[in-house]
Design brief:
The chain is mostly beta strands. It has one helix and 28 strands.
Length: 331
């Protein structure tokens, strides 16, 4: 599956033999103005803050739109295939049209936001963000480009996968009791809001000792140049010198997949070190000695459509025995 599905954020996972095809979760080419994770869809609860299901994600609090303050329209619950509420967590969501909003009262500190949303098919646009009543200079960029998947080869299936994710750094520290409001202002596009994930993003980590920075091998942290060969060279240099690979803060475009037999690759954090790639690692499904250890960076892709045999799913193939995957944001 190489379409973008709900964002996958990995807490620490250790494996004895890992063969993966990580399928990027629902999200628009996440506005990195400042970019997310999630677990299995949480059940609806009376309060806006939602207990997580699945792995605990440090620094993340999830808020259900239908339990927040809103003058929009709550849809659901619904269990009918092909209906918008059916794909929402808790089978409910909030639809916003011009002038309408949904406001979340924070129960924990945060400085970043990820929103699970849906637009009408073919639509794109923006959504205004307010913090404690003040509008931010930059809103969330939204798109339906990665939504509305059809699988005609499956008898009886209907168009599905309506939701995507958009994330942003808020540029300020928020505390419990503060508010974040999403509003359809003039020039914005109508949207359906499922959940908002608020994050307390730590400061960027420093380069560890005994490591090789991809920038030192020619990677472009601006995201303009293709950094594939620089990453490839860093992996080779690290293997020859017995070192790890460091991805510093920045955005790195990798247009051709990498192979890694054994490497430790880490970044400054999944909101700081961003790899833009559809196929980042493409290893054989067997015969990789490992370990391939990956931590603390994001892989943001832009594939459209569903192709189960495609390698364009961020990480494909085996990572070998004893590998760890920790703190990756894959979208």
């Amino acid at each position: 599956m190489s379409h973008r599905i709900r964002t996958a954020l990995f807490a620490a996972v250790t494996v004895t033999a890992l063969a993966v095809a990580v399928h990027p979760p629902g999200a628009a080419a996440a506005p990195l103005g400042a970019a997310p994770p999630t677990a299995a869809p949480p059940a609806a609860v009376p309060s806006a803050a939602t207990p997580l299901v699945g792995a605990a994600i440090n620094g993340m609090t999830e808020y259900e739109a239908e339990s927040a303050s809103t003058n929009g329209s709550v849809i659901g619950p619904d269990y009918t295939q092909g209906d918008l509420a059916t794909e929402a967590s808790g089978r409910k969501a909030v639809q916003l049209s011009a002038g309408q909003s949904v406001q979340f009262s924070l129960t924990a500190s945060a400085n970043a936001l990820d929103v699970h949303y849906s637009l009408s098919q073919g639509a794109s646009g923006s959504l205004s963000v307010y913090v404690n009543g003040s509008k931010l200079g930059t809103g969330l960029a939204l798109t339906s480009q990665y939504s509305y998947i059809s699988t005609p080869g499956i008898q009886g299936s209907m168009t599905h996968h309506f939701y995507d994710d958009a994330r942003m750094l808020l540029g300020q520290q928020l505390n419990a009791g503060d508010t974040v409001k999403l509003q359809v202002d003039g020039g914005d596009t109508a949207a359906t809001i499922d959940v908002a994930d608020l994050f307390q993003v730590p400061a960027a980590a420093s380069q560890p000792g005994n490591s090789i920075s991809v920038v030192d091998d020619g990677a472009d942290p601006s995201g303009n140049g293709d950094s594939a060969n620089a990453f490839r060279q860093a992996i080779n240099d690290a293997a020859a010198q017995g070192k790890s690979v460091w991805i510093p803060p920045g955005t790195f475009r990798v247009t051709s997949s990498l192979q890694a037999n054994a490497v430790t690759m880490s970044g400054a954090g999944s909101w700081c070190s961003i790899v833009r790639a559809n196929a980042f690692i493409n290893n054989p499904t067997s015969s990789v000695p490992g370990p391939v250890n990956l931590s603390n960076f994001a892989i943001l892709g832009s594939t459209v459509g569903r192709h189960d045999d495609s390698t364009q799913n961020a990480i494909n193939g085996s990572l070998g025995s004893g590998s760890t995957v920790d703190g990756l944001w894959i979208q």
